[in-house]
Structures are given as C-alpha cells and as structure tokens.
Design a protein that fits this description.
four-stranded antiparallel sheet; Aspartate Aminotransferase, domain 2; seven-stranded mixed sheet; alpha/beta; 466 residues; binds pyridoxal-5'-phosphate; Aspartate Aminotransferase, domain 1; 43% helix
C-alpha cells in the first residue's frame, strides 16, 4: 500500500524549498543579536497589507512565508533586543532556540513517560538543577509548565487539595489566601480561577512582606477567616521592582500556622543561581511549592515555566488525571515519571527540553555569569542615575530592576519619552508606578535580562531623558 501522494504531509519540491527558506530565516534571525525594535500595527492595517491568507486553496508556502518575514514579523516587538528593558524582557540562548525547533521536529507527547521517556529524562536533568538552586529537601521535584501563571495555579491547587484532605470541615468553605500587594497579577487571577478570596498584607515599615506583618494579620483575622485561610504566597523578586519578601520569616509563620507556603519566583528565580544575591532568598528552601520561569531569567524561549513541590505526592493527589483510555500510559513497562500528574495540563510540549540542551551545552557556570551580568548592569545603571543631577534613584536596585525618576517629569513626559525612543527604533523602556511618601507616582523602570545589553546602552538611554 502506498501512502497518500501529494497530501500536505508529503514531501515535494515546494516543501523542500519551504524548509530551506525557513531554516535560512531561522538561522539569520537567531544570529541577529540586534533585531529591529518592531512596532505594533493595527490589525485592520495589517489586513490591508497582507490580504486574506487563509483560503480554500491556500496561498502557497513561499507567499505566506514572505508575508510573515517582510510584514508580520515586523509588526511585533522582539523581546531579545539589547535595549529592550521593559516589562520582563528575555534573551533565549541560541542553543535553546534551536532546540525548540528540535523539540517540535521530534513530535514527542510529553505528558507520560511511556511516550515521552527520553525527552522527559532531559527535562528532569534540567529540573534537578532548578531544584538544587532552591535548596529544597531531597525528594522535592517539579515539572515544566507553560509559564508562571500555570505554575502558580498548579501549586495552589495542590495546596488547597491537601488542606481539604486534612479536615472534612474544610471541604465546603470558600478559601482564603494571603499575599502582598507587590505580588504578580497572576496570583489574583489564580485566586479567581479557584474561587478563593485574597487578603493583601504589607509591612508598615518595609516594602516587602515580613513574617511579623503576616503573623499580625493572621492574629487579626476573624475566626471564620482563620478557618478558611489555607495558603500564603510570598514573592521571590517582585515583577515591578525585584523585591524579595522575608522568606524565612514567612516560612516560620506558615510552619507554625500549618499553612501552605508558596514562593512565586517566576521572574527572580534565575537569581538563585547568582551568588551575589542568593542570600536574599534564604528561606525559600522551606517552601511547599516554588514557581520559576525559565523563559524569563534562564534564557529559554517562550514558553517555559516550572513548578517545584516539596512533596510530589501531594501534587499528584491534586493533578493526576484518571480516564479509561489513559490507564495504559501508566502501566507499560518503564514506569517512569509522568509530568501530567503534577500540574494542570495533560497533553504537553516538552517545554524543558530547550533549557536542558542549552544547560548541557554551556554548563551551569555560564548561566551564573549571564545572570550576574543582569545584576551588575542594574548596579551600573543605579550609579549612573545617582551621578546625574537630573535623575533620582528611587530605591537600590532589586535584583535586575531599577526604578528612577527624571526630576520635574509628569506621567505624560514618561509616556512621550517611551514612545519617542520606541518609534525611532532606539530603545524600549517603559514607565511604571511607585508609591513615594504615600503617593503613587509615575517613574521609569529598567529590567535587565539580556547579557548583551552594555554600559553604553544604559548611558545613551539615560541621555535621552535630557
Ligand atoms: C511573570 C510573572 C508571573 C507570570 O508568569 P507567566 O510566565 O507570564 O505566566 C508570575 N509571577 C511573577 C512574580 C512574575 O514575574
């Protein structure tokens, strides 16, 4: 029997050409460490430029790819430009990007060891390293997720299910969790998904959550709220300012109060590999669960998050899916590790594979150096700001985040500055807000990830505020 001839899965001369075009583009793009800043464009304008692309007969690979290459890719803002210092930028290694292509090409279903074995093996070696950075006790382990949002949700569902299993009277209650106002927006959206209430707790004197503020807040809860409180989410590097909560102090309270302790280090987790700041994370090893996003500060391509648990069995109790057609996955021979059992997703890409390849190729020392580079750039920027009469450093850098003001600027001046720099293909630096003397004020913010950013980039960007 022959297979279909000329189906869209077969190889013909057009397909070969398309493959070569795509490989050529990919190699060029991966090699280009100074891409255009890119600009967002209205959808209707893009439609005018490219016309209908999905049609009954298809427009052909050559045409579709040309449209992507010449028009559509330019209407996006790449995250790896060395002067992209907005939000949390990214700088995936060339090895990791290429292995993302290999991950797709290999067509591996990563939910269960039965089908994903060799690939999951690689992910697990990368995970060994992540777990070792946290200092969590032996047997702690984790899985790669689509990102920090999915990791946070998976962790908290595990915590909630455990809490419910402890006491039948916990079962019907609407739950409550505590976090700080610096926590990431995904904590609120996670609480919405699980229908939990959130209590925001901040320290009166510090700009991070402390054990004593937490203890006081718990002490002040009504009996009903105390009963339904099941978890505390601390942040290991706030997204806005890189601030790390008092992880040891919070751990102590959680242990005494029997609360699930989650540390969200989606952005900051990379800095666990940086000796210069590692001490700030002391106490993370006492967490029940930890989130780290390798697609932020561990140079993986999108998307790749990770959730780590102290007790994997509790995660499996919450997440393992049962189904008649799934049982076979668990029964066949190899009896390996099944990532689907520990987070919310079933069918999954082997998201940790690009990280593994890049780690295997370069070694962990190179990661430490690249992450330390982001921290030294932040310190350099802070020095430049302090030495400049027009500028004001709001606080010492938090990990690789720097908040600063241009004297006498109003909110609209920051917006204008951002747009002007972006439109001239020079830099992408966006404003944020910070509370100064009880008042929320607009300020500028740098977040350094890309080790190819250099001192001169910083000097030129600061000069553009003159
Ligand atoms: C980015 C971030 C998240 C969300 O992660 P995604 O990968 O965007 O889903 C959660 N928490 C913190 C602290 C973050 O910085």
């Amino acid at each position: 029997m022959t297979r279909h001839v000329k189906s869209m899965h077969s190889i013909d001369i057009d397909t070969v050409e398309m493959m070569l075009d795509i490989m050529k583009y990919s190699i060029n793009r991966i090699s280009n460490s100074n891409p255009d800043m890119g600009k967002p464009t209205k959808e209707e304008d893009l439609l005018k430029l490219v016309g209908e692309t999905v049609t009954e007969e298809g427009i052909g690979g050559e045409k579709a790819f040309e449209l992507f290459k010449n028009v559509l890719s330019k209407a996006a803002v790449p995250v790896d430009h060395p002067r992209h210092l907005a939000f949390v930028p990214a700088a995936p290694t060339k090895a990791a990007i290429l292995f993302d292509l290999v991950t797709s090409a290999s067509s591996i279903h990563g939910a269960y060891w039965m089908t994903g074995g060799g690939g999951i093996f690689c992910e697990n070696r990368a995970m060994d390293w992540l777990v070792s950075l946290t200092g969590l006790p032996e047997k702690s382990f984790g899985v790669f997720t689509s990102g920090g949002t999915a990791a946070n949700l998976s962790a908290i569902v595990a915590g909630r299910e455990y809490w419910r299993s402890l006491d039948d009277t916990n079962k019907g209650l609407k739950t409550l969790l505590i976090t700080s106002s610096g926590a990431h927006s995904s904590i609120k959206s996670m609480a919405k998904v699980i229908d939990a209430d959130i209590l925001l707790v901040d320290d009166e004197n510090e700009d991070y959550l402390t054990g004593s503020a937490l203890r006081k807040a718990i002490h002040n809860l009504s009996q009903f709220d105390r009963k339904r409180l099941f978890a505390v989410v601390a942040t290991g590097g706030t997204t806005n300012a890189g601030i790390i909560d008092d992880l040891n102090g919070i751990a102590e309270v959680c242990e005494q109060e029997h609360l699930w302790y989650h540390v969200d280090a989606a952005y900051g987790g990379g800095a666990l590999a940086a000796p210069s700041v590692r001490h700030l994370f002391n106490g993370i090893e006492r967490a029940d669960s930890v989130t780290i996003d390798p697609h932020k500060w561990m140079f993986s391509p999108y998307d790749c998050g990770a959730v780590i648990y102290k007790n994997m069995e509790l995660a499996a109790n919450a997440h393992s899916q049962k189904g008649a057609y799934l049982d076979i996955f668990k029964d066949e021979g190899a009896q390996g590790f099944n990532p689907a059992d520990y987070q919310i997703q079933l069918t999954r890409r082997l998201r940790g594979l690009p990280l593994w390849f890049s780690l295997a190729m370069h070694g962990t020392k190179k990661y430490t150096e690249a992450i330390e580079r982001g921290i030294s750039l932040a310190n350099f920027a802070a020095q430049q700001i302090q030495a400049n009469d027009q500028l004001e450093l709001i606080r010492e850098p938090g990990l690789s985040c720097v908040l600063f003001k241009r004297k006498n600027w109003k909110a609209e001046d920051y917006t204008h500055w951002t747009y002007t720099n972006h439109q001239s293909n020079f830099a992408l630096v966006t404003p944020t807000k910070w509370t100064i003397d009880g008042e929320s004020q607009t300020c500028a913010r740098f977040c350094f990830i890309n080790p190819d950013t250099n001192e001169n980039d910083i000097i030129e960007i600061l000069d553009s505020m003159n």
